[in-house]
Write a structure and sequence with these properties.
This protein is of the alpha+beta class. The chain has two domains: 100 residues, Alpha-Beta Plaits (2-Layer Sandwich); 51 residues, Beta Barrel (OB fold (Dihydrolipoamide Acetyltransferase, E2P)). The protein has four helices and 13 strands. A six-stranded mixed sheet has the order 8-12-13-11-10-9, with no helix packed on it. A four-stranded antiparallel sheet has the order 1-2-4-3, covered by helices on one side. Strands 5-6-7 form a three-stranded antiparallel sheet, with no helix packed on it. Strand 5 and strand 6 form a beta hairpin. Helix 3 crosses helix 4. The longest helix has 24 residues.
Length: 207
């Protein structure tokens, strides 16, 4: 092998290494920052769908995690996620980052190319990039005191309609409850009677 051939191969190898490094850097995984706005006593993540699409996870799974970690009630309406109460923007972003670290990022290679698999009672995070897998360690939420506001079927309440749900019903909040009220407009304050309660979801009727 001539010296010129050796120099050529050395330069080619160095060039390939440099290109590979640039490709890896360009593929850096970035989760969109939550765009948070406040409307009355509610907190809204405007780009919730974009965040969910980027991390490639089920929207309901992400929402349930955030509701549990933030200790509030809420729902997904269109592209947005709506939470009861005024929640600090930094707290929301931290919880989203915690979700990504727990349910998305591979601990071995650090890539987000993963999916969740349930085996019995255990949820595993499997990496499509390196083949590694690990059980998801979910931190137990500290028990907090329940809100004092308790709804009762048949009783009357005054609520403010914060949004309109998928089926056209108004969405109001009371303590830990989400209340659906038909025939109302967003922003109106109405007096309702609670017709039915299922967990933290209630259905009311204008009186």
């Amino acid at each position: 092998m001539s010296k010129s051939d050796y120099d050529y191969k050395s330069l080619l190898k160095q060039l390939i290494q440099n290109v590979s490094t640039k490709v890896v850097k360009s593929e850096r995984f970035e989760v969109p920052k939550a765009e948070v706005i406040y409307e009355g006593r509610t907190t809204i993540i405007k780009n919730f769908d974009k965040i969910v699409d980027t991390i490639n996870r089920d929207a309901d799974h992400v929402l349930k995690y955030l509701l549990r970690e933030l200790g509030t009630a809420g729902e997904k309406v269109g592209n947005r996620a709506i939470f009861q109460g005024n929640i600090p923007e930094q707290q929301i972003r931290k919880k989203i980052n915690d979700y990504v670290e727990t349910y998305v990022i591979c601990e071995e290679c650090g890539r987000p190319d993963t999916h969740l698999v349930k085996e019995g009672r255990t949820i595993l995070l499997r990496c499509d990039a390196c083949g590694a897998f690990r059980p998801v360690k979910v931190r137990k939420k500290k028990v907090t005191q329940e809100p004092k506001e308790v709804l009762e079927e048949g009783k009357e309440y005054e609520v403010t309609i914060k949004d309109i749900g998928k089926k056209g019903d108004g969405v109001a909040f009371y303590g830990k409850y989400i209340i659906y009220v038909p025939g109302v407009v967003k922003g109106s304050t109405v007096k309702i009677r609670i017709e039915k309660i299922s967990g933290t979801v209630a259905f009311g009727k204008i009186i």
